[in-house]
Amino acid sequence: MTESGLVRRFSQNLLGRDLAVGDIHGYFALLQQALDGVGFDPARDRLFSVGDLTDRGPDCAEALAWLARPWFHPVCGNHDDYVCRYQSCDLDNWIQNGGSWFQQLTEIEQARFAERYRALPLAIEVQTQAGPVGLLHADCPFSNWQGLLDKLDAGVSGGQLRAIKNVCLWSRRRIELLDESGVEGLVALVVGHTPLGAPARLGNVHYIDTGGWYPQEGGYFTLLDLHSLIPVTIGASR
Ligand SMILES: [Mn+2]
User: Fold this and answer.
1) Active-site residue, 206 included
2) CB 125 within 8 A of CB 132
3) What's the CA-to-centroid distance between 1 and ligand 1, angstroms?
4) If we measure between CA atoms, which residue out of 145, 135, 167 comes closest to residue 20?
5) If you measure from the C-alpha of residue 110 to the centroid of ligand 1, how many angstroms do you get, rounded to a whole number?
6) Which domains does the chain have, with CATH numbers?
7) Which residues lie near ion ligand 1 (Cβ < 5 Å)?
8) Which of 40, 60, 74, 77 is the most buried (most CB within 10 A)?
9) Do residues 186 and 126 make contact, with C-beta atoms less than 8 angstroms apart?
10) Rg of the chain taking only CA atoms, in angstroms
11) pLDDT per residue as tens digits for the range 96-121
């Protein structure tokens, strides 16, 4: 099987835990606090992210340092996609949605961010003892996970890729309809994008954006254990 940059696959972590976090939106210091609170061990554990690394929070410029960490593995979110398209996107719209930090970077820094963000995969698949777990930012455009991977691996482009990205990065259809049908071929699909007061599940689709990026209004980071599919509680180290 050929592998496009749009999908990243990870074999089972036999050494430590695999955790997933919801949208970060520039709150990396609070994310680090949450990781410390569960005894995250960078030598053995891995942190997967459903994307939206930047916009809105105080530590957006830290994103590149996080992306250099060998245990941190995000998919691309709709806000990350603004960075990828920074020369052609709707700037007013982006700034309204928290993008002013990017406008303050030098041209060289902007290019460096865009280059790194363009390498983010759209989909991640992680092997666990129970089977494969998928991560996307918003939702899966197919009822079957393999259907998505086949398209992405085949190197779709143009309008077809745009249509797929539109759902993967932006869709709220499933949660608006409370659609329990789930995604075949996975133990679980983990997504963010839609902030909720507590983690939620529709079929095998897990929603984990609990607003770690609006701590002032009671939001917090959920760290979902990908092997047990149970959120790890702060204060519980190994
Ligand atoms: Mn989002």
Assistant:
1) no
2) yes
3) 30
4) 135
5) 20
6) 7-232 (3.60.21.10)
7) 52, 77-78, 193
8) 77
9) no
10) 17
11) 999 999 999 999 999 999 999 999 99
